[in-house]
Please model this.
Amino acid sequence: MTRDPLVRVENLSTYYEDDSLIGSKPPVKAVDDVSFTIKRGETLGLVGESGCGKTTLGRTLLGLLDVTDGRYTVDGTDITELSSEQRRDWRTRIGMVFQDPAESLNDRMTVGEIIQEPLTAHDWPTFSAAVRGGEATLAGDVTEASSADSPALTIDISGDAPTVEIRETLPLYQDEVTVSVDESTGSDPSTSTTVTVGITPSRAELRRERAFRLLDRVGLSEEHFYRYPHQFSGGQRQRVGIARALALEPEFLILDEPVSALDVSVQARIINLLEELQETLGLTYLFIAHDLSVVRHIADRVAVMYLGNVVEVGPTTSVYQSPQHPYTVSLLSAIPGSGSPWEGERVTLPGTPPSPRTPPEGCPLATRCPAKIRPDDWSLSPAAWRAIDAIQAVLYRRAGESQPIVGSITRRLGLSGDDELEATIEELLDDVTLPSDAQAVIDDVIELAKMGDTDAAIEQFSSSFGSACETDHPTATQHDKSWRSACHRHQNEYVDVEETIGSRDRSSAAVDSVDGTVNN
Amino acid sequence: MSEPPLLAVEDLVVEFTTEREVIRAVDGISFEIHAGETVGLVGESGSGKSVTARAVLGLLSSPGQIKRGQIQLQGTELTESGWDDHRGTISIVFQDPANSLNPVYTVGDQIVEALKIHQGLRGRMATTRAVELLEDVGIPDATARIDEYPHQLSGGMQQRVVIAIALACDPDILVCDEPTTALDVTIQAQILDLLADLQRDDDLGILFITHDMGVIEDATDRVNVIYAGEIVERAPTDVLFSRPAHPYTRALLNSIPGRTPPDAQLPTIDGEVPTPTGPASRCRFAPRCPEAFAACENTAPTHISIDTDTATKTPVSEEFDARESTVEQSSPSHGAGANEAATRQTNRSAACLLYEDSTAHQQPDSQ
Model:
């Protein structure tokens, strides 16, 4: 049982539908067919640029967003199949810490109220009790524990006097619980025993006590209970956020950029606190961050997300040492300073990610990939290929933006042309001479684009200069038991990613230096 | 004799007077920027970095005011003559591009506005120049994008536009206040590359303000480390990272996650950055300093220059040690004049009693 991963995500998708009266646009595929697992007590780092879907994924796993497709199980329970009632109970097992502690805490509540809020909302604690050492009916302040969760009280009636065991996280003392065993009532001998339990402190008192303990747990003190969030520093506020997330004794914490808003010295203390809590409470973390150095420090395994896809997932040390996916390479090489594990030249991705509403058909990275597969039909110089990539980027951007209706109609009718695009493309090809057949394709593309049919232009472009990267969605290649990435270059027929990037680096450096001498 | 600096800030003190107290946000800061170099100002939030930037640009607003010190821009004393005649010489790029741009004007309008004010360009001339500027900052398809509104651009593109606006007045000095903090790493890399290119083309002097040590390491030639309104250490970038002299710099570097082995606890700095309310009577870092001794509590340290070769070092990890050996050979190549200013530029110094002669023997050994 404990060998199984705590969290299992299979082919999970979360789309934002956008229906309007006039007609529905394609949905935003924020999370698209994502699979991974998180073992008990493990930290999975989730990295990627803003807009890649990492926060949506976090919110989906918390149950704040509906799953569009796929399965999501925690501890064997399929969350997508739960009723809303069941889901509410289940949610107590997951905690969330948000990025900006200034915005995620209510300014009008004291810290004590903030930490107690989830306790009140879920009517904590439920005095569930289990009886050991005999059959008995429970009465008094407690309810029968269902077999699934660990009971608040375990009452042993086998001895002369009943003994009570109190769950560790419950701030209740032995002398606050009274137990009386009554065997005389009832006619049926097997269920004749009644155990009556009385609990002295009220739920409110226990919640308060729990809040005090939580404050202590996260390195704050009792005096902070009565203060308001604005009286705290950023680091202290994040501690309050963590205390609140821990209130309902979750086993799985989703940490959405928990240290991004903090200074390095404060950040270090919060990271240490999170690691200490994980060890003592046996927590499982999903650590969402864009700071790759932080993830390297805290995560056991890391998942790299791009445009709603997990492009690579594996043990942190392996992924950082020899990244397999071109996107991971560029991400690691972009870490500024000596923190970057990548030893070659910085691999800068051109442009920005495409819209998740209209993702590329093939590989999600195809529009920006530094190691894209070139078709064999052409023998072009590296500079020419770069110009062609740039043209493609311009076309994709044009396709993504909404055209004014009048403009697009006049263009389709051939009444006006998109001269800007032609000028841009010609400028991109300024320093490059293409072979005549390649130039002919570009001319066709310009002609189509001028007519306003950008989609046809892209299709024409891709069918000539595209490769598997544009047409086929890459499937994941397993490098190791828990390490996989999705790139066409993992197939044997292609040169691998690292070698490709290395050789393109050199060729572009060579070309640049040639350009330089010509210009001078 | 080397060229005079573009910008020289000398003993700058900025105070904010509130009903309760007078906060000395910047307390006696001095630094220089020469043409073609990038000078870093690094520190935690509340250390006075941004206030310094605003003071240098003459953008301080009440209750903040310059209490003391000089800001010399190409030989002109700005604190006396005012900034108005020099606005075109120095410009600034702020942290959040979304807040720096006006959402109801097109990108082109906003660049043209700057061109109109600073260069007197109008009409077609201004538009053509605006397109050129957008191309200079690496925006593809500039003729189309000039008519777009800020919300139609991504964060990285927006920051490029902000840089284009800053360049519209053809400045000699660019102040970058956390220019990449709001951006993703891959976009940050693009912007850092862009700034380096622009600097090479125009011989810009750049003041680079950030809290990110990694960015400082990549982007700057020299660094000033600021703590509670004071510069506590200044050094050429490679030296600062290989052999930090001030205990605060060391602590700051140690707390960066990438420098500690993943299974080890991160070293931390206890306590909070104090808010200075008057002249320093002691070392402001002393309460948090692991190397503090009795004298630190009653003596305000002054800057002491440190010989580059003999400075202390505290290796953090083996990886860090290995890196150091490669850095060791490179010597600082910035500035080489014989005048006093150039001496300050070449040398490294730290405001710490560890380096006072009388306490020299207390210098911490490398572990």
Observations:
- Chain B is about 30% helix and 20% strand.
- Chain B touches chain A through 46 residues (CB under 8 Å).
- The mean pLDDT of chain B is 83.
